[in-house]
Amino acid sequence: MVANKRLRLQEPAEECPYEVGSRVVFTPPRGPARLCTVSSVTSDLGRCHIGLQSEEGSWCVPSCSSGLKKVLLPQDKAVLRRLLQGLEAKSESDALRFSSKQRKAFEALRGTERPGSKQAVPRPVPTPWSTLLSHITAGTMTWEDAHSVFQSCSNGENPLPCSLLLALVRAGKELVRWEPMLLRLSVPAGRLVILGDTHGHLKDVVHIWKTEGLPSKDLVYLFNGDICDRGDSERRGGQRALQIWASVLAYKIAAPECIYVTRGNHEDRDYWPQYGATGFSGEIEAKYDRSEADDLLDAFGELCDQLPLAAVVQEQCLVLHGGLPRCWADDPSRSLQDLEALERPLCIPENVDGRQKQLIYDATWADPQKENGLGPNDRGGEAISFGPDVTCSVLKSFGLQLLLRSHELPGRGSEEFKGRGFEWWHACEDEMEVLLKGAKGLCLSLFTASDYCGCLEGNSGARVIFDGDGFHIVEHQGWEAEHAFLQSQTEKPFDPAEGMLFEGPLERSVIEAVVERKHELLAEFMASDAPKDWLLPLESWQACCHRVLPQIPWQDHGFHVFARHAPPSGD
Question: Which domain of life does the UniProt lineage start with (predicted)?
């Protein structure tokens, strides 16, 4: 013990990159970032520690702490100040289109240029993953391998090792870069399922894959962009875009024709930092050390720049994340080959100068509007909106019947769709017969993340399922997805009387639905009460409730809600 201590004392002292009086940004393990002044610098056993002082308190931390970021030099502060002020004023569409000098300032604040930072030693891949890693690098990944990745991602385990995730991203990039920019997909012997925005809501992907089935040759999935950024409430998994990506890429590598991803506006490396801790960059940086995070951000950025921009399903439906390009509005020479001709790597442009930039920008950013023609977009910046005449004209010229897009919460165009997982736009004109069975308009917005950003009872999620007879829309509620997500994390049978689900969202949803339809419920109860004694058997009560509110699983859950709130019987 003594010898070891002496050897340790002889180690060279660590050089401290901070001086007394310098300013730093410190993010403690729990709490927001704080601007601090270095009050002291000490060296203990060769390790440098610094004292920090701010209005909120004081701390003593190692100088190599990942929570420290050196404040920018004076000449860069003005750049950063202009950048942050610009973020306040600019719209969502162009907020993160900064110059190279601004980017350098932002990256310095993020910590990528922090003085004295050490190159992290890669963490070894745990035993179960080492075999899988070799399968990925050798190109021999199996469906069972992909399933093991999905199981790990959905059961609440720690994030995948960086080396494994990097291998998935890089192998996935090599696959998608050879796909056409405009996918041509046909419905297999089974079904083709399209998902809209998921935005890190892993629970919804778990629910859909458990309900519909896992990707296979007979069950093909298409993710229509915006896997990245934001996230769910903490109790429902929080930010899980990494887990969604890992699962999607695992199946893509194992069986490339069973799953596809088209690009959304959030599949953009320049855009991720805008959301700070709640963005895709923030999620990666919170789960991996600095060096690993940088590698992952670069790898994901390269992957997104290779993603296809659109798809045509069954030669009937055009799938884009945003909307129709403005250059197609009045151009008789427009063609789907405009999309096929785009070259990779494909960066989402900062402006719309030129036809190619308009194609890319509008395909990821545009929204529908009620009025004919093209109009401004509430998102501001370069974003545009397109009307029903544009949709009708473009679809007719391409011989298609439906535009399916995502990009926004339903309900902007009609109160009827508020709180839903989909929204119909652009009612069918007499001059154009909609041949696609199931369509109720020319444009369909699809959103898959239920209770978006953790807003309980905010909205349902939805998916579109194509089969041999056309297509249909399936919705699910946030509590249903949470149920599936929680079940995936435990072998214990789910108990409605004890489950976390019923402490809030479902209980409130059921009660609000009952209050809203109370008159119809009372009429059903009275019609079923033959003796007129105001008593109903439990089975009759559940049957009445189901007839009025069929979306609630009364036999499994609804009774427990009312049993918890029922007054004492007095017996």
Answer: Eukaryota
**Sign of dihedral through CA atoms 313, 311, 253, 164?**
negative
pLDDT at residue number 252? 97
Q: How far is it, in rounded angstroms, from Cα 496 to Cα 486?
A: 12
Dihedrals phi, psi of 542, to nearest 5 degrees:
-65, -40
Which residue, among 22, 223, 7, has the nearest Cα to 116 in the 3D structure?
A: 22
Q: Report the first-to-last Cα separation within the chain, whole angstroms.
A: 73
Q: What pLDDT, in 10s, does the model give residues 381-392?
A: 899 999 999 999
> Averaged over 105-109, what is the pLDDT?
47
Buried b / exposed e across 443-464, counting CB within 10 Å, b at 16+? bbbbbbbbbbebebbebbbbbb
Exposed/middle/buried for 525, CB within 10 Å: 0-12, 13-18, 19+? middle
CB proximity list for 566: less than 8 A, separation 6 or greater:
none
* Average of per-residue pLDDT values in the chain: 80
How would you classify residue 562: left for phi > 0, otherwise alpha for psi between -120 and 50, otherwise beta? alpha
Residues 279 and 285: their CA atoms lie apart, in Å, by 10
CA distance 505 to 44: 51
| CB neighbour class for 89 (10 Å; exposed up to 12, middle 13-18, buried from 19) | exposed
φ/ψ region of 454 (left if φ > 0, alpha if ψ in -120 to 50, else beta) reads: left
Query: Following CA atoms 386, 388, 392, 398 in sequence, which dihedral angle do they give, to the nearest 10 degrees?
Result: 20
Q: 33-45: per-residue pLDDT in tens?
A: 677 788 888 876 5
Is the separation of the CB atoms in 324 and 394 below 8 Å?
A: yes
Residue pair 559/542 in contact (Cβ under 8 Å)? The answer is: yes
Helix 127-138 to helix 143-154 angle (10° resolution) is 140
pLDDT per residue over 158-209, tens digit each? 789 999 999 999 999 999 999 999 999 998 888 999 999 999 999 999 999 9
Whether the Cβ atoms of residue 538 and residue 273 lie closer than 8 Å to each other: no
**Range with the lowest mean pLDDT among 94-108, 121-135, 331-345, 352-366?**
94-108
For residue 84, give Cα distances in angstroms to 79, 141, 184, 470.
9, 45, 42, 48
pLDDT score of 413 more than 50:
yes
pLDDT of residue 496: 39
Name which residue leads in pLDDT, 429 or 307: 307
Which residue from 331, 191, 192 is spatially nearest to 183, judged by alpha carbons? 192
Half-sphere exposure of 105 (CA within 13 A, CB side): 19
β-pairing verdict for 68-70 and 23-26? antiparallel
Q: What is the token pair recorded at 168?
A: 């998935």
Backbone angles phi, psi at 403, to 5 degrees: -105, 120
Q: What is the mean pLDDT of residues 97-101?
A: 41
CA atoms within 13 A on the CB side of 559: 11
DSSP result, 524-543 = HHHHH-TT-SS---HHHHHH
Contact 502, 496 (CB under 8 A): yes
C-alpha to C-alpha distances, 102 to 84, 92, 295, 461, nearest whole angstrom: 10, 17, 21, 38
